[in-house]
């Protein structure tokens, strides 16, 4: 039986998530589970950024501000207003979508470096609002004792992070499904069309403003939810999420993973988090080594890790093709 | 009532007046040619009519009696005023089918965009086996055909073709002429810019020549090519006839 492209992808996705679902049976260590949770969170943010940057070609450098909006929405709603953590988690996605909608207005008809500058300025504006409202947000000090997520009477502090692992995995699954359905839809193709040739796409009836709005709000949804989850997981907030360090890390994941792939940034989140852990003891050499590895991978495989995997799979398929058949294929191709 | 009426359309870039008070109208079902030397304002005129990427500084453009002032490019395309571009433009990373689907989904009318895309692709000569190919893999002529298919997928009432024959070989030009004739035979109104005079003479019912942004001559093609003003615009005053 031959499956269609999307069904095959869906089967692969379910298989991958099933493997991740049984992983805690073998990984009992709390810290390793924590690392996996962070991989899922960063993977959600990076894959969502890939929607606007990779597929849409919009150089939105305010993406991490949407993560920050989700984080502070969760913290403010739960701590200052006593809202249920799960409602606050959903609201964190909604708030990020609204923030992305506001961010679109000034960058609607801009291109390239101007989008970078304005989206970065937008991110700094949100940071300044948070810092200025220190009575509620804790200013530069951030907020502590943020209410955690709750699962009935289950004690999430004493389960070696098992509950948080599954919550993060569920959110990641929903995020991946949302992004893949988005990019495979006519809407997803239209944002690629705008990236490929803006004037041509407009001449075929594609609205630049509407599609850009949907691209950025679509990329904001799970970024905000990831921010909300981050708040419930760490139980504190910090304005560091608006800083250049986290932006650089997540952007590295998008580029190393391979633009316009969705799965690539998730893969890069895994690779960079593990590499970062493996080099934790070598001090200042750590960022140098990580940077060198990223450059090396992108030099050899400009399509990133997803490109490397695709190339590997093609090579494997070619090796499995019977010799005579391969020669016949080559003859036809030539 | 004319399908398209252009009234004193003008566009300037700084001190350069690219289109200078051009007026003309196109009747439904007409194949209307536009010629002129390089820099005469032909493509700029297409930009003004289609609103992509800009409309006129002054003057009016009426499509089926409706003033296009203030309408965005994608809205004008959805009215059925559809253009192609001088270069063989395509969405390179999308498949042949998805290229056509963009027009059918966002600019076309009717319930099944996939069917209209397949029909448009078949009309210009693509076989179903080509539908999954990436547009970037296509030859220049195939990309031109694909651009036409994506325009036809919008079911256009007025088709603006900007130098469709540029960069093509002689057999390809002949095939293109036959294709444009088939499009015209469906009742479509076509506005055709072309440098290759044989294409314009073979297809146009009326021919307009622009020079330095202004309308020089508008008449039947056989009359236009003999007009001394047109010969002067193309060859200059001090031509030598052997």
Overall geometry of chain B = globular
Look at the helices and sheets of chain B and give the structural class.
alpha/beta
**Helices and strands of chain A, in N-to-C order?**
HHHHHHHHHHHHHHH
Helix and strand content put the structural class of chain A at: mainly alpha
Helix content of chain A: over 70%
Q: What's the tally of helices of chain A?
A: 15
User: Largest inter-chain interface?
Assistant: A-B, 18 and 30 residues
Number of helices of chain B: 9
Mean pLDDT of chain A equals 92
Keywords (chain B): ATP-binding, Nucleotide-binding, Transport
InterPro entries (chain B): AAA+_ATPase (IPR003593), ABC_AA/LPS_Transport (IPR051120), ABC_transporter-like_ATP-bd (IPR003439), BCA_ABC_TP_C (IPR032823), P-loop_NTPase (IPR027417)
Protein name (chain B): ATP-binding cassette domain-containing protein
Domain ABC transporter (chain B): 4-237
Describe the structure.
Chain B: This is ATP-binding cassette domain-containing protein. Chain B: Pfam families: ABC_tran, BCA_ABC_TP_C. Chain B: GO terms for molecular function: ATP binding. Chain B: Keywords: ATP-binding, Nucleotide-binding, Transport. The complex is a heterodimer of chains A (334) and B (242). In chain A, 76% of the residues lie in helices and 0% in strands. Chain A is mainly α. Chain B has 242 residues and is an alpha/beta fold. Chain B is built from 9 helices and 10 strands. In chain B, the strands form 2 sheets. In chain B, strands 6-7-8-3-9-10 form a 6-stranded mixed beta sheet, with helices on both faces. Chain B has a 4-stranded antiparallel beta sheet with strand order 2-1-4-5, with helices on one face. In chain B, helix 3 (96-107) crosses helix 4, helix 3 runs parallel beside helix 5 and helix 4 packs across helix 5. The chains are: A mainly alpha (334), B alpha/beta (242). Chain A binds chain B through residues 186, 189-190, 192-193, 196-197, 199-208, 260, and chain B through 50, 52-53, 72-74, 77-78, 82-83, 85, 89-94, 98, 101-103, 105-108, 113, 150-151, 153-154.
